[in-house]
Amino acid sequence: MMLRYRIGCGSIKLCIESTAGPSLWVKPSAINTTFGSLSHKDDFFFVNKNRKLILVTNRISSTEKVVEYVHSTPNAIVRLIDSNIVTKYIVRDVETDFLLEDIAKEIASQDILVSKIVGFKKKGTSEPIPIILIDEIGKTNRSEIKIGRVIFRVSRFIENPKVCFKCLKFGHTQIRCNKDKRCSKCGGTHNDECTGPIKCFRCNEPHDALDKNCTIFIREQEIINLVQTHDILFAEARKRVATGQSFAAVAGSTSTSKSVVSSEVQAQLSDLLLVIKSLQDQITNLAPQVSQISNLREVNKKILDRCIQTQEHLDHQIVENKNLQALMNSQNKIIESLTNRLTVLESNYGFRSSDSPDPGLYHQSLDELNNFSPAIPVDTGPGIG
């Protein structure tokens, strides 16, 4: 079982005994061997005058382990005898056919650590009523609990102050009281029938000391309400009540702070709504620009496609230019080779190249050229006539 536990809330006191009465573990060696690995180093054990083993711890984990081990041991019994971190719940409309043992098993299967389950009967009869009281170890805040297949609503149980019917003081019972018996009517310590006037020894008012309308009784009830409702220690609760911070005042201040917080939250929500509306208006105004941006994206996409095509064409032209350059280099090499061969041929056959005549050295007219007769007769061979 895993339960949340806030350190500093108090301690748990378990009584480990047997069906015969005394505990099965009373020797220190047996206690260390059996419970050493189940408890924390801050926990401590002691054996009381009735030879019952008492565990005092402030850890839920130690409680769970010890309870589980003792329950698994034959003839061993463990019970909670004191705790100030128990939350009590009243469950109504529970069928009286349910056995308390079955209810305990059902609750344990939900990882809820319960120290006690109490059923109620009609006053003066043995007829059960459909109400049970559940003591859950730990400071919890449940609103419902499952029993069988039914989910029941639960309510916190604020118990009345613990009163000793022997000395009539608060905080303990008559079983543990070692003081003299006190009369509830006059406050005296006589054993015979009271003949004096009725007077509360606590508040000096004319009423019985066990009257629940006593201002001291109401004050003790407020202390218990503060302890159980606001999760504080008894000393702190008594201090608050003594300084006038009653349960009603604390609850009122809590509700006032809640209302202040609620008003602050509402103001923040109003501001957030205004901001959201402003953002919506901005989005509405940006809608046409978003449309233009979409159109520009389309245009940019087309331009980009055109640029890609142009780049591909340029790359193709560059390749063709390289091929043409290679072809020109090849042609130049061929021309150079032919020129070299021609030079070799001229040198081999005695050819001499002559300079081209300068047109400026000759000034003959066309008639002079026509009248020019060669100095050397030309043999034309046999001709006609």
From TrEMBL:
Segments forming a coiled coil: 321-348
Keywords noted in UniProt: Coiled coil
Protein name: CCHC-type domain-containing protein
Organism: Araneus ventricosus (Orbweaver spider)
Organism placement in taxonomy: Eukaryota, Metazoa, Ecdysozoa, Arthropoda, Chelicerata
